[in-house]
């Protein structure tokens, strides 16, 4: 039997804006991670690995923003949350840490990002 999906990313788009122009740092990225799986995000320098991970954990600041797509953690939509809801979600995650851990690790001079989800 398949384990439940822990993290699901669909058609993620993260852009950085300058006047009338937009730099498409992440454009239409999709993947899902089930409980207990290890997922490696690998690509060339400048391909959007770090921005993808920063998008997942809410660390994109102006002039950047998530321009589209969906980020669902345990079924809850995270993309587009207000600051108040983000704060409440962070507090909930702190409480959940005893059961579960998500690690973002940058390796090899920024060339690989490992997202590990495991049940403790």
How do you describe this structure in short?
With 120 residues, this protein is an alpha+beta fold.
Explain what this protein looks like in three dimensions.
The chain is α+β, with helices and mostly antiparallel strands and 120 residues long. It has helices at 49-56, 83-96; strands at 5-18, 21-34, 38-42, 64-73, 76-77, 100-107, 112-119. The strands form two sheets. The protein has a four-stranded antiparallel sheet. A three-stranded antiparallel sheet has the order 3-7-6, with helices on one face.
Structural class: alpha+beta
Largest sheet: 4 strands, antiparallel
Please tell me the overall pLDDT.
79
Low-pLDDT runs of 5+ residues are 102-120
The share of residues in extended strands comes to over 45%
- How much helical structure, as a percent, in the residues? 10-25%
Shape: globular
Strand order of the largest sheet: 2-1-4-5
Oligomer: single chain
Count of distinct strands? 7
Count of alpha/pi helices: 2
CA radius of gyration? 15 Å
Q: What is the N-to-C order of secondary-structure elements (H for helix, E for strand)?
A: EEEHEEHEE
| Measured distance between first and last alpha carbons | 19 Å
